[in-house]
Amino acid sequence: MFCTSEKYLRFVTFTLLGVPGFESFHSLISAPFFIMFVCSVIGNPLIVYIILSDRGLHAPMYVFLSLMAITDFMLSLCVAPQMLAIFWLNSRVVHFSRCVIQMFFVHFLSYMESGVLVAMAFDRYVAICQPLRYSIILPGPVITRIGLVLALRGVLMVTPCVYLVARLPYCGHGVLSKSYCDHMSIAMASCGNYTINSIYGLTQLILAFAFDISAITLSYIFIIKAVLKLQSKEARSKAFGTCSSHVCVISFFYIPGGFTVVAYRFGKNIPPSIHSLLSLAYLQMPPMMNPLVYGVRTSQIRDHARKLIYKIKM
User: Fold this and answer.
1) For the segment 108-158, what is each residue's pLDDT rounded down to a tens digit?
2) Does the keyword Zinc apply (predicted)?
3) What residues does each domain of the chain span?
């Protein structure tokens, strides 16, 4: 029986398989992802606390970093608890409404993360290429508006996905070969034609990430040109050093994300277990690595964290 009307959607459920074919190894597979989750829920709030408590870190660069930390923290909370419930408790069944809510936040926070990386690249461009106008170009109100625009972009891009999955017919129960709910997994679990979902999903990915990657690349082209014009080797080294953390974070986000998209869209012969592990790594690795990268490579954050640890020991 096809359940097409909204009043029946609450009876639709999905079974999340976790890592298909490796159910007996779920406890072992969960170990690295649990470590990622713990690092994320400790490291990201710590970054935000350090930035908020030190007035010297209220510059635009650190405001964007705190926004990224908040995004990473929320993304970990959105995905990891359900993933661990599947791996540890075999709790696989999720209702349609809960699945769609998770889908919304997974995609929204992913777009937010990508947008924040663009904002951070623009911040580095202004700091290196327009240093005398830095405070004029990026005052507090402008940073607030940038954050609101990024949030609005995410909402506008993901909201149609909610409608597109709600309009599909379902047969009462579906199977998702992942540990979380996303747009195309829900659509493919339906009993109807999900061609529109596939077209929209691919189009929004191309438009959003192609724009973001192009904007970041363009910013760094100007940055490299400006740095190479510096006469002092020490000045060049310092300028590149301020960008190195951001480049690492970009790599942690876009490289696994690129592999995930390519494997999901074009790797028809790739086993579902690989798809599942790639998607989990894409969502869990950046929230773990970003605080570590900025904590190790940013002296102000590192020194403040050291003082905080010393106080706790005392």
Assistant:
1) 999 999 999 999 999 999 988 888 899 899 998 999 999 999 999 999 999
2) no
3) 6-313
pTM for the model stands at 0.90
- Point out the least confidently predicted range of 94-103, 150-159, 210-219, 301-310: 301-310
Distance CA 170, CA 167 (A): 9
**Residue whose pair of structure tokens reads 């930390």 in the numeric block:** 69
Rounded to 5 degrees, what angle do the CA atoms 9, 13, 18 make? 145
In this prediction, residue 102 carries a pLDDT of: 96
**CATH number for region 6-313:** 1.20.1070.10
Q: What number of other Cβ atoms are within 10 A of residue 172's Cβ?
A: 12
Measured between alpha carbons, how far is residue 10 from residues 14, 17, 165, 234 in Å? 11, 21, 13, 62
Cβ pair 265, 202 in contact under 8 A: yes
Fill in the amino acid letter for 145: R
Q: Are 261 and 198 in contact (CB under 8 A)?
A: no
In the three-class reduction of DSSP (H, G, I as helix; E, B as strand; rest coil), residue 5 is classed as: coil
